[in-house]
Design a protein that fits this description.
alpha+beta, 3-stranded mixed sheet, flat, about 180 residues
Length: about 180
């Protein structure tokens, strides 16, 4: 024997059919979006090859530079864990945790005090337009540093300062 709820507790068949139709339509839209994303990727690759040619064969004779030639500075992070300040201050410390989809994720940002900031920026103070690159952990992510902040490097990141006579920050960031 099965316990069956009273009939009044069931959603009417007509309502059930409308819900199923909406869910079917949503699934079809989801499938079409995935297909559109695939086709967009193919188009982007095709346009890139049309504009720039095969990057390995370089049929358009573009100038080829090493990363060192495209930058004026390459600085690795201090190989130590920063001493973080318990307060949100003016010295944010960029770690791989903050590098998300080419943007700074401020939700878990940690800060350091002035003494720690000075120690971590002894070799080079990060400036607007510098690129911070995740070299370990969340490897390969990169962000451009915005104006108005005194950043320092946490662990597992590197800083690239573009040589503006050869490229701008956006271009180098996109390459990375």
């Amino acid at each position: 024997k099965y316990l069956v709820p009273p009939l009044k507790d069931f959603t009417p068949l007509e309502t059930q059919q409308r819900i199923v139709a909406i869910l079917d339509k949503a699934e079809e839209i989801k499938r079409l979006r995935a297909e559109a994303n695939t086709q967009t990727q193919k188009l982007i690759q095709s346009v890139f090859l049309d504009m720039f040619g095969d990057p390995v064969k370089n049929p358009k004779k573009w100038n080829v530079y090493t990363l060192q030639e495209m930058t004026t500075e390459i600085v690795d992070c201090p190989h130590s864990t920063p001493t973080y300040s318990g307060e949100k201050r003016i010295f944010p410390c960029i770690r791989t945790t903050e590098i998300k989809n080419g943007q700074i994720d401020w939700s878990e940002m940690k800060f350091v005090d002035e003494l720690e900031y000075n120690e971590r920026t002894r070799r080079l103070k990060p400036i607007n337009g510098d690129i911070v690159f995740g070299r370990e952990g969340t490897f390969g992510g990169a962000i451009r540093l915005p104006k108005g902040h005194n950043f320092c490097l946490g662990q597992r990141v590197m800083l690239f300062r573009p040589d503006f006579s050869k490229c701008n920050s956006d271009f180098l960031w996109a390459l990375l």
